[in-house]
Amino acid sequence: MAARSAELAFAVPQVIAHRMMQLDRKEFHTMGAEKFVAFGQSWNAMVMQSMIENQRLALSMAQSFWFPWLAPRSSAARQLTNAALGIAGAGMAPVHRRAVANAKRLRKRRLRSVR
Predict the structure, then answer these.
(1) Which of 14, 21, 50, 64 is the most exposed place for a label (fewest CB within 10 A)?
(2) pTM for the full predicted model
């Protein structure tokens, strides 16, 4: 997740700079549409990951109830931390994917226009 955050931190300013330099109506329309799509994909990914994490936590609780002699793999705090990181990572993935793809696309477009 740290690597994705770093890539996102470098890609977003590049995309904003390219788009502000162009002031192209088509590019601004594309930007707006992408934001709506990425927002929906992020929420969907976070909901799905929340359901998965809830099932994992429920399974862990059931195992500790039905098999108390088995040592727990990790503490409840660690499980909750991992669940929160998984949900945040799932929500960030679509935004990361779009921003990095846009940075690459706009970089290529700029290189073609410079030549």
Answers:
(1) 21
(2) 0.70
